[in-house]
Design goal:
Layout lengths: L1 H24 L20 H8 L7 E3 L15 E5 L2 E8 L2 E8 L2 E7 L2 E3 L4 E8 L2 E4 L2 E4 L4 E4 L16 H7 E10 L12 E12 L3 H5 L3 H9 L17 H12 L5 E2 L16 E2 L16 H5 L3 H4 L20 H11 L7 H6 L2 H4 L3 H5 L2 E9 L8 E6 L7 H4 L1
Antiparallel strand pairs: 1-6, 2-3, 3-4, 4-5, 6-7, 7-8, 7-9, 9-10, 11-12, 13-14, 15-16
The structure holds heme C (7 copies).
The site of one heme C (HEC) has 20 residues, from strand 7, helix 3 and helix 6.
């Protein structure tokens, strides 16, 4: 009798103890208790997780640990010369990476890589200064396998004061919280009642994760953990139930430029919401001839006859939302052919490229690569601006192809 009582007590205590440790180990998402975090999706959605966790979306921002940072820190390609007395050097010190400014051979200032943006074409980094992030003057570009000025930065003198504002994170991360505080009393003057945004580091959810696209999913995950026999999705927005505009809006949120008039934060967007409740079109958006190939896939695609004259084209027509854009151009030809079977090109076109080759290269002629007007950069010791080249999403007939 006594033995069973003791045993019972031990069991109760063990259960309590295990529960307690579980509680403290439990992941709490900075977005709040409605969110479960991507790791919790693995056990039921392994394929989607495997794909998405390797995608550029997941890496759109990341902590600047050496594994995540592109570029050379010790070979010949790690020095940028501004003038004969001034250079910026990429340096590894212990486990941290820095951009270090030297004047006449003397170190003047050093800023640590803290957060990286991007991996595919380019990577830019930021450092922390008084609870805000500032862009480092040099970025890494895959097209030249080298460092060059961050977009819009000068090549004749280093510049450390470009704040990377919350807007950047709203397209490149899944959460970041900031609050407005009055400036410290020394800085305050009577004429301006300046308030400054300060970012809470601990609230950053790096990259574009599952719940950034699918909305909060804690309830969904908990339901299915408790009800393993239920096979139909519970407590989650289904993309299948959305209309075409809602599906487009879920991608256009971050792929339709950044010049609308802001009504609500992008961070508040959930699938099924209307983008028109977040951004109002402004004059620059009606300037349709000048849409940039960078960051504006939606509006370019929306100008194509394919989009206008068919009622089904959206981003998912050509992209798996959990994977990067396929580099295999022939795979897109197959998609073109679902709507353009039996397409016959003129003899002059076929002279440029034989029919067999043409069949695999629709994209090369009809979605050609174009240089961005928004993004340019300069190499060390060079006055010339280098171009940033992306494929246009305005599907059409281009003069280069006509020649
Ligand atoms: C305990 C298992 C379980 C966990 C954990 C889980 N899900 Fe699910 N989920 C399901 C089941 C079951 C379905 C329905 C069958 C299917 O579509 O795979 C589903 C379906 C979905 C769908 C498709 C909905 C539709 O109808 O189109 C999405 C999106 C989704 N889950 C997202 C998530 C995300 C994001 C997480 C992590 C935060 C997550 N799930 C965690 C079990 C789970
Ligand atoms: C919260 C903002 C956001 C949303 C929502 C979003 N994207 Fe993106 N997307 C980005 C950013 C930022 C990048 C660039 C990431 C990088 O390279 O650092 C990107 C990159 C991509 C790429 C290129 C990836 C590669 O490396 O080839 C594709 C394709 C893409 N997005 C498609 C989509 C589609 C389709 C949707 C809708 C289902 C969508 N995106 C929704 C922000 C977003
Ligand atoms: C860039 C936005 C985006 C991200 C990030 C994303 N999804 Fe999805 N997901 C979608 C879209 C859009 C669909 C609908 C695809 C369709 O209709 O073909 C989808 C469909 C799904 C489905 C339904 C089955 C399927 O594969 O079509 C599941 C399950 C799912 N996602 C889980 C996840 C999980 C888990 C993660 C994180 C590891 C994740 N998603 C990340 C946009 C995203
Ligand atoms: C409106 C959404 C949006 C905003 C705001 C935005 N970006 Fe992006 N950014 C994108 C998208 C989408 C891509 C990838 C596709 C492209 O270049 O068209 C991208 C690409 C990039 C890349 C190249 C990524 C790669 O893998 O090649 C870098 C670096 C970058 N952005 C940094 C920034 C910084 C820094 C800011 C703020 C100054 C910023 N972005 C603001 C949407 C945005
Ligand atoms: C969802 C169906 C659909 C898909 C997918 C599609 N198109 Fe189209 N496309 C159309 C329709 C509809 C038109 C308009 C035909 C018309 O008005 O006579 C069109 C028109 C065109 C035109 C003529 C454009 C002009 O300005 O005169 C070209 C070129 C074209 N498509 C190429 C492509 C290529 C290349 C792809 C693949 C990358 C593709 N399309 C994918 C439906 C589609
Ligand atoms: C008709 C097919 C088609 C449709 C529809 C389409 N894309 Fe693409 N997308 C492509 C092709 C082709 C590429 C270039 C692949 C390459 O060159 O490696 C691409 C590349 C991209 C990239 C990477 C840019 C780069 O150069 O790295 C992004 C981002 C992207 N698409 C976003 C979108 C978004 C968002 C939508 C919906 C608004 C969309 N796409 C609709 C065919 C399409
Ligand atoms: C070598 C460049 C090139 C390639 C590759 C190419 N096209 Fe074209 N395409 C053209 C040119 C130039 C025209 C306009 C003259 C013509 O019709 O031949 C055209 C016209 C078209 C049109 C409009 C025809 C009309 O009557 O309005 C469509 C649709 C089209 N192409 C689809 C495709 C598809 C689908 C593929 C891939 C199977 C493809 N093209 C591959 C250059 C190309």
């Amino acid at each position: 009798m006594k033995k069973t009582k003791i045993l019972f007590a031990v069991v109760v205590l063990t259960v309590l103890f295990v529960n307690c440790t579980n509680k403290s180990d439990e992941y709490t998402d900075p977005r709040g208790t409605d969110y479960a975090g991507s790791e919790s999706c693995i056990e039921c959605h392994q394929p989607q997780y495997e794909m998405a966790s390797h995608s550029s979306h997941f890496k759109a921002t990341a902590p600047a640990i050496p594994e995540n940072v592109l570029g050379d820190f010790d070979s010949k390609n790690h020095v940028f010369i501004y003038d004969k007395n001034t250079k910026l050097v990429m340096e590894k010190r212990n486990d941290s990476l820095y951009q270090v400014l030297y004047k006449n051979g003397k170190e003047v200032e050093a800023h640590r890589f803290e957060i990286v943006f991007g991996t595919k074409h380019a990577q830019t980094s930021v450092y922390w200064r008084s609870n805000n992030t500032y862009e480092l003057p040099l970025s890494y570009y895959n097209s030249i396998h080298n460092w060059a000025t961050s977009p819009g930065f000068p090549a004749d003198k280093p510049y450390f004061d470009r704040q990377v504002i919350k807007d950047c994170y709203a397209c490149h991360s899944s959460n970041i919280s900031s609050k407005s505080v009055n400036q410290s009393s020394e800085e305050k003057n009577f004429m301006s009642m300046d308030v400054e945004d300060v970012i809470n580091k601990k609230t950053i959810v790096y990259g574009i994760d599952c719940e950034r696209c699918h909305g909060p999913a804690k309830k969904h995950a908990e339901f299915h953990l408790k009800n393993p026999n239920v096979k139909a999705a519970n407590s989650i927005v289904s993309y299948k139930s959305l209309n075409r505009q809602q599906k487009l809006d879920a991608c256009a949120l971050c792929h339709a430029g950044n010049d609308g008039m802001k009504l609500k934060s992008r961070f508040d967007f959930k699938p099924g919401d209307n983008l028109s409740d977040y951004y109002r079109d402004t004059k620059s958006i009606t300037d349709t001839a000048n849409f940039d190939v960078h960051g504006n896939q939606f509006r370019l695609m929306a100008q194509s006859k394919c989009f206008v004259n068919s009622d089904k084209m959206d981003c998912i027509t050509c992209h798996n939302p959990h994977q990067n854009a396929s580099p295999n151009l022939a795979s897109y030809s197959k998609i073109c052919m679902t709507c353009h079977q039996g397409i016959e090109h003129k003899a002059t076109t076929l002279k440029m490229m034989p029919a067999k080759l043409l069949a695999d290269n629709c994209v090369e002629c009809h979605m050609p690569k174009k240089s961005s007007n928004a993004i340019t950069f300069q190499l060390s010791n060079s006055k010339a601006l280098s171009k940033y080249i992306l494929r246009t999403h305005r599907i059409g007939i281009y003069p280069a192809a006509k020649k």
